[in-house]
């Protein structure tokens, strides 16, 4: 695996633990980017971070992990929720009805 150096935007912080499996730097801060790249020039620092990065990707993006997340999302979407809030005024549309979902029987 390889450690990642990424600007601290969007979902980068969800995957990169600064100093553990890569580095984050403030957007537009060229000095900070260079500083992090210099740190990774040291193989003794880069190798363990790369191994950590590999483990993080394998844990989150294996086929089984992704299928599990999709299943949980679909179950959440198909679980009846409390009544939807009423519109704030007459011109605002009502909330859409909860989608009907089939329950999947699990065979083990």
Question: SSE layout and pairings?
Answer:
Layout lengths: L3 E4 L4 H4 L6 E4 L4 H11 L2 H19 L1 H16 L30
Parallel strand pairs: 1-2
Shape: elongated
Rounded Rg: 22 Å
Low-confidence stretches: none
Calculate the terminal CA-CA distance, rounded to whole Å: 34 Å
Question: In which order are the strands of the major sheet placed?
Answer: 1-2
| Secondary-structure element pattern, one letter each | EHEHHH
Structure classification: mainly alpha
The biggest sheet, with number of strands, parallel, antiparallel or mixed sense and barrel status, is: 2 strands, parallel
Any overview of this molecule?
This protein has 108 residues and is mainly alpha-helical. Helix content is 46%, strand content 7%. It is built from 4 helices and 2 strands, in the order βαβααα. Strands 1-2 form a two-stranded parallel ribbon. The chain starts with a strand and ends in a 30-residue tail after the last helix.
The gist of it:
The protein is mainly alpha-helical and 108 residues long. It is 46% helix and 7% strand.
Question: Which key terms come to mind for this protein?
Answer:
mainly alpha
């Amino acid at each position: 695996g390889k450690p990642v150096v990424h600007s601290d935007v969007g979902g980068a912080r969800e995957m990169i633990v600064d100093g553990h499996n890569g580095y984050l730097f403030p957007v537009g801060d060229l000095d900070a980017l260079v500083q992090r790249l210099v740190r990774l020039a040291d193989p003794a620092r880069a190798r363990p971070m790369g191994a950590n990065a590999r483990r993080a990707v394998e844990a989150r993006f294996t086929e089984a992990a992704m299928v599990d997340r999709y299943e949980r999302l679909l179950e959440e979407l198909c679980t009846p929720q409390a009544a939807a809030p009423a519109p704030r005024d007459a011109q605002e549309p009502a909330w859409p009805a909860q989608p009907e979902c089939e329950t999947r029987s699990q065979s083990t």
